[in-house]
Every structure is written in structure tokens, then in C-alpha cells.
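DATA SHEET
Item: assembly model
Revision: 1
Owner: S.N.
Input lines:
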Amino acid sequence: MLGQQLLNGVVLGAVYALFALGFTLIFGVLGVINLTYGFYFSAGAFLALYFTQGLGISMMLALLLAGIVTGGIAVILDGLLLTPLRRAKAPELASLMVTLGATLFLYSLMSAYFGTDIRRLPPKVFTNVGFNWLGLHIETSQLLILVTMVVIVSGLGWLTQRTRMGLAIRALAENGTAAQLAGINAGAVTRIVSFLSGGIGGLAGVLIGMNYNAIEPYMGEQMMLKGFAVVIMGGLGNIRGALVAGLMLGVLETLTAGYIGSSLKDAVGFGLAVLTLWVRPVGLFGRATIKRA
Amino acid sequence: MKFVQLKRGLRAGALAASVLATGMAGAPYAMAQAKTSVQLGAIEVLSGPNAKYGVSIKSGFDLALSEINAAGGVLGAPLAIHYEDSAGNKDQAVNAVRKLIGADKVSLILGPTLSGEMFAAGPVANAQKIPIVGTSTTANGITALGNYVFRTSLPESDVVPVTLKAARDKLGVKKVAVMYGNDDAFTKSGYDVMKAALTKLGIETLTTETFGGKDTDFSAQLTKIKAMNPDAIVVSALVQAGAGIMLEKKALGFSDKVRIIGGNGLNSPKIGEIAGAAANGTLVGSPWFVGKQDAANVKFVGAYKAKYNAEPDQFAAQAYDTLFIVAKAITAAGAADPQKIRDALVNVKYSGVLGPSAFTADRNPADTSGVVVLEMEDGKFAPLK
């Protein structure tokens, strides 16, 4: 049973990590708390539903397309909502307020249009197949989540550490003004980061919607809470941190539910976030920044 | 975490403001209503995530209303229902009660849809001595709210034991695992009922696991349960979590013989839509079943289909019967006086699509003979053989 529980934990952790990756990217590079991120998650899932059911596109292609379209939506929303604030050098709280208003509006719009009924991918589009190996059981969608997470993490690692684009992204994350003075096109880099994080959010929405076979407009909002916990534990803007913290949270929650008591499951997750803030306010992998006046 | 709390706070504020606005906007219009007919109020969830329940109930009322008025109404005057939308919100339900009593001068209130709403709205009507009759509220303790609070829906405590007894006697279920949503008044109350019934029937509970109503991952709990090898899993959940549990159960490779046994929350065709084949074998108890072959039910289903072009569900059936029960009580009372109607309701006997019905001394439905145990088969509930 322990083996299966650990596997359950890793899969749940991968779900958390996958969701948190795009979220932490916005945090780290753009320096804003963008609450519309949860909407990208829901939007991705609904787009995949539309592509497969409405247009008859295959599931794998729909997954990619949903990611790309959600990325595009993220670029547009960022341009509409946050670029004016950046131009006005508005305080951080302003972006929080604007994105909060925008998500509430977008969620309401979605539920008005689609209704709040839970939708599912029809069996002919996607059916989970189980694999048994050494007494462990894993499903297609779970494997897909694990694989996608590995691909995205290594892709992001390569992009940020090995490419000129990554250098520009890191420079912008470090100090926006200095980066611009050094000739980096901040607008372009912002759009790329928005696209990446929106795309990751959308992909996560499709995969998780597939795994639990439940798609509804507010599904992103429920992930946001856990997403916050993971991002806090991993350190704001830290990709490796989001990965490790996500996996850790998933495994700990599963083991708590399996061996201590399922009613303590959520307490463990959020307790860890509080503990992290106490002991290491910058997160497990965060780097303390020293601000000089 | 600060931001999340901030977000929630803002939301609550916005909600309070909108509730206030609807409450105030409704009042002047109602003053102009004619007073010739007998005025009833109905508070149902007509918008938002739980609107499907409220809309079904309203359809049931409207069908019964047209039949009653076509037959001459009550006390020689037509019956009228003022509908208020609670949107599933307790505060909005309380405001609706105040408006119906204060502005519309109704003699009796039907609803609200959800047990949680009734716990908030029931005491308000009770304090003003206006009878309030729930048609879909099944949680424990509803009628304990006061002498003017009634319900026609069989409480979970009447239905769940019938389901569990059928599982024990017909399917040989001896040891079970229990799972319930611990963050919702309805699923928690369902669990209390299940626990009591399991003890009474001598079915052993191997473990009790909890989850959040919005959880999507149940693998940890179900892996643990699988290792204990139960005969069935007794689940108190609403549709979304319930379907999630079924999918995960199938994914973890449980034997098909290990059935899910649910309460009223799982008594919805949605379960089959979401969980597909994983929902097969699910057992629920229901006060009513669309395929019941008695004359009253066949007539009701036919008339409903003709009017709405859809099959009725249990909520429509309960609402349909309830309006006839109320009409009978008003006729017996001889006046549209809330106190007289209340006293007449206690004694009214009626036989409708749910079978025979009457109220117990504590204003709950007295007759459980209409309960049918249903089994999910290929996306549809059918009576358990």
C-alpha cells in the first residue's frame, strides 16, 4: 500500500507543481500577483473541450492548441490590465486589485455562458486506460501529467539558463529598469513570459480536467489556494522551488490522508506554508533580496 | 495567504451589497399585487450552481398550480405563487422570507431549496407565525426549527436506512468503509444518519474517511480503503465529489462488486453523466422514481412531459405533491389565515405521486412506504432488483 500511496502522492504533487509553475513564473519575472492565472486554468480546460467536442480535433492536438490559445489570452489580458499599471508605475497592490476584479468578472462571464454544471470529456475523445506494474496502478492521464511536468520543467530550465531569451527574462526579473537600460525590450519579454505562464496554466487545466474528468468554470479558483501554498513554500518565482514544493505537498498530503487521518490532509498543506513563512520567509529555495535605499 | 483572504473578504462584501440591493428593489412592486386570490410565496434556487434543483421545483409547482386553478382554485379563488430567487444564498433566502411576509402578505411559504437555506430562513418565518414548507430539505433537524416549519421531503434519516437495509439483505453487505464531505452541513448530516443506521443494522464500519466538497483527488483515502477490503463504500457527498470518488475507485481497480452506497446527494442522473461506467452499481434511496407505474404517477409524468418537454425529477415530483397538500390544507382551514392553515396542515392526509403522505407530530413526512432503492445502470437509475 505504501508504494501506491507514494505514487498517488507524486501524481498529486505533479498536479500541484504543474499548476504552480506558470503562477510562479509571473510572480518571479513580472513581479505581480496575477490572480487571473486561475482563469487560464479553467479556460484551457474549456478550450480543450470545445476543440475535441465542437471541432472534432484529436485530444493530443487539442491539448497543445489549448495551451497556445490560453497563452495568447494571457498576453492580451496582461496587455489590457497590467501594462497600463506598469506604465503608471502603480504600486503592487494595484495589480492585485485589478486582476482580482478581472478574475471575478471572467469567472462570472464563463459561468453565465457555459453554466456551472460539471462537464466531462466524452469517452470517445478520451478514456483513461490503467497500467499495472509491480502491484502499482497508474492511469494514462496521470502518466501524461508526469511527462508534461518533466518536459515543462526541463524546457523552462533550458530556456532561462541556456538561451539569450532566458538571460533577458532573468535580467528583467532581477531589475526591470536596469534591464531596460541595458537594451532589453521589456515589453517583448513581458509578453513572452505572459504567454508561457498562460500556456502552462492552460495545459495544466486540460490535463487535470482530463484526470479527474470534471470541467467547470470555477475549477481554477480551487487550485489557486494550493497554488499559493506551493509558490510560498518554493519561494516566489523559483521554478525548481515550485517543483520540489509541489511534489512535497502532494506526497505529504497523501501520506497524511493514508496513514494519519484524511481530515488533517489540508491542514498539513497550509500548516507547512505557514511554517515556511516563519522559518524561511523567502521560501525553501528563495534567495533573500537586499534592498538598498 | 493574505491575498486570498483579501479576495474572499471583498467577495463577501460585494455579495452583501447585491443582496441588499435586490431586497430593497423588490418591495414597491409587490405592494400593487391584487389580493383577491390566495397568496403563496416560494423561495427557490433559480440561478447559480444549484439552479437545476430550484428550476425543477418551480416546474413542479407550476404544473400543480395550473391543475388546481383549472379545477376552480381553493376557497373559490385562484391560487397564486410569488417566486423569489435565493441563488443558493442564505442571506438572500432570509430577505426573501421577509419580503414575502412583509410586502406580499403571503399565507404560506414554500421552500427554500437547500437545507442550509432553511436553517437560516425557517426561524424567520416561524417567528412571524407563517407556515414554511420545504419540499427538498432533507438534513436532520429541519422541523426542529419551530412549530411552523414543515417538510414534505423524506429526511435522509428515513431514506438512508432503507437503502442500507436493502444492501445488507439483497447484496450481503456486512462490512463497509464510510466517506463523507466534512465541510458541508448537508453531507455531514448525511454522515451522521449513515453512521447511526449502520450501527442499527449491524453493519461493520472498517474506517471513516473525510474529504472536502471541492476536492478532486481521493486516491489516498481510496487506496487505504482498498487495502481493508470492504463489501461496499458508503458515501455522503454531492454530485461532483461523488462522481470523483467513483472515477478514482474504478481507476484504483476495485472489484465491481464493491458498490458505492449514497444518500440523497448522489440521487442525480448527473452522476452517470460525469462518472460514466464508473457509476454503475451505485445504490441510492429515493422517495420517488420516474418509472413508477401507479395511475397518479403516470398522469403526472405525462402532463409534465407535455408541458416542459423533459422528464420530471424527484424535486419536481415532491413540489407537485406538496402544492396539492397545501391546497388541501387551505381548503380544510376554510380561510387564507396562516394560523388556520398551519393547524390544518398537521392533520392533512393526501395520496399523490410519492404515495400516501401525512405529517408526523413533529411536521416531518410520516410515510416511508414510497421509498424506492435505485441502482445505477449505464447512466440511468433503475429500481434495484
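QC remark: Chain B has two domains: 2-154+295-353, 157-286+372-383.
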